[in-house]
Automatic annotation (TrEMBL):
Top-level taxon: Bacteria
EC top class named in words: transferase
Alphabetized UniProt keyword annotations: Membrane, Transferase, Transmembrane, Transmembrane helix
Transmembrane regions listed in the UniProt entry: 12-34, 40-59, 71-94, 106-125, 265-287
Record-given protein name: Undecaprenyl-phosphate glucose phosphotransferase
Localization (cell): Membrane
EC number(s) per entry: 2.7.8.31
GO terms, molecular function: undecaprenyl-phosphate glucose phosphotransferase activity
Major localisation: membrane
Membrane topology value: Multi-pass membrane protein
Entry similarity comment: Belongs to the bacterial sugar transferase family.
Length: 451
């Protein structure tokens, strides 16, 4: 019982989660998918496959501080991989005569039950921590400043995460010494030590690391204002040489690339078939009735790896020689009456779903800029080029966060770059879906900078 109440890893939780999920995928298969057929071969294949996929996708690496949205993203990723696994089994083992439609239904049912199970355990543990004070970790913080105060407040105001903060040590004016800290950690049976890098010298950090290692204490560091410590660093070994990677990009992972490209193809195909197939002729007639010129407007923009491509839109302006040099501004005389409507509702962007289908763009990603603007911003805006590590998108996190349309000041482009980099470093399929939903809501409500 003590292992559940105060142990370092809450050791039984992960094995229990494995057993629950394996029971679900095997139980649903026996009751629904196999329908009286011998389940032995299927159960062995699918159970081993599930475990291997879970290790690969880090499906069970859910911690007390993991956000629900991240758990849901893990479920979606694991479910897609599991669907492919079951399809692979049906292709390799024809004797069971398992067909595609039942496989999809089986996978969706398993995913639903596993999601319910996972969130039930997650919230029951939170309730257990709040109501009974169990499954907790005792913490201390070494160093006093704004960031450590914020962490202390987080511990105290969120008991559902199971952190019991005991003390913050202040080294300013020699109020405390490391010996005081070490004695307190041992006497009070502290589990985790949090250190502010900016408050400690290199020799003190080395001493704390040795102490934590020798006394089996979890040691974590709070970044200071130095930018490198605020990154999601990846620690790797080249032979025996440790190397830190400054920026991790989820879309460099081959599985994530397949998931995102598959989603792009599916989503763009749906829009092209069910929306653009009938909307394009209507918009074309309206554009032609008001002004002479082509229905579509083609513009060179920079995409993935800075490569230029032709970006398509419904034409919203009268033909003019400055279209490739200057963005539309508020009250721009070049914009037609039809153009004002399709720009306000973002209908003018819909032809870019062909760019997505052809592979030049993604549904969600950093918005591509005109080539002339890209060259200008690359010279004056720090980290602007980071946006080209992934494919550009029809919509993006920056656009739903208030940074769409005309760049009126440097503050606009700096804000756009900040959100784009966050998206690149924190991509998930769930985040893409959230951005798409919010884009649709914004289009219906209308936006001030949609002109």
């Amino acid at each position: 019982m003590s292992l559940f109440k105060h142990g370092r890893y809450s050791g039984y939780l992960r094995p229990i989660s494995y057993l629950i999920d394996l029971s679900i995928i095997n139980g649903v298969a026996i009751l629904y998918l196999l329908e009286g057929k011998d389940p032995l071969i299927f159960s062995i294949f699918i159970s081993v496959g599930w475990v291997l996929l879970a290790i690969y996708s880090k499906f069970y690496e859910v911690y007390r501080y993991t956000r629900p949205v991240n758990i849901l993203a893990l479920v979606v990723k694991q479910s897609i991989l599991f669907l492919l696994l079951v399809f692979a089994f049906s292709g390799l083992y024809h004797e069971l005569n398992i067909y595609p439609r039942p496989i999809v239904k089986y996978t969706l049912l398993c995913s639903l039950l596993i999601t319910i199970s996972k969130f039930t355990v997650y919230y029951l543990l939170q309730k257990y921590r709040v109501s009974f004070g169990g499954n907790y970790r005792s913490t201390v913080i070494l160093g006093a400043n704004k960031k450590t105060l914020a962490l202390e407040n987080f511990f105290n105001k969120n008991p559902e995460y199971g952190y019991l903060h005991q003390k913050t040590f202040n080294f300013k004016n020699k109020e405390h010494t490391l010996s005081d800290c070490f004695d307190y950690v041992l006497n009070e049976r502290i589990d985790e030590i949090y250190c502010s890098i900016s408050e400690l010298t290199n020799s003190q950090i080395a001493e704390i690391v040795d102490f934590a290692d020798n006394n089996l204490k979890i040691l974590k560091f709070i970044p200071d204002s130095k930018e490198i410590y605020s990154k999601r660093l990846r620690y790797e070994y080249y032979d025996y040489i440790p190397v830190l990677t400054l920026r991790t990009i989820p879309l460099e992972d081959s599985a994530n690339m397949v998931i995102k490209r598959g989603f792009d193809i599916l989503f763009s195909s749906i829009v092209i078939v069910f929306v653009l197939s009938w909307l394009t002729p209507l918009i074309a007639i309206l554009i032609k009735l008001e002004s002479k010129g082509p229905v579509f407007f083609k513009q060179s923009r920079n995409g993935f790896n800075y490569k230029e491509f032709d970006c398509y839109k419904f034409r919203s302006m009268t033909p003019n020689k400055d279209a490739n040099l200057y963005q539309a501004t508020r009250g721009d005389q070049r914009v037609t009456k039809v153009g004002k409507f399709i720009r306000k509702t973002s209908i003018d962007e819909l032809p870019q779903f062909f760019n997505v289908l052809f592979g030049d763009m993604s549904v969600v990603g950093p918005r591509p800029h005109m080539v002339s603007h890209t060259n200008m911003y690359a010279k004056k805006i720090d980290k602007f080029m980071v946006r080209h590590f992934v494919k550009p998108g029809i919509t993006g996190l920056a656009q739903i966060s208030g940074f769409r349309g005309e760049v009126e000041t440097d503050k606009d482009i700096i804000g756009r770059v900040k959100y784009d980099i966050f998206y690149i470093e924190n991509w998930s399929l769930l985040l893409d879906i959230k951005i798409i939903v919010q884009t649709f809501i914004n289009a219906i409500k209308g936006e001030d900078k949609a002109y």
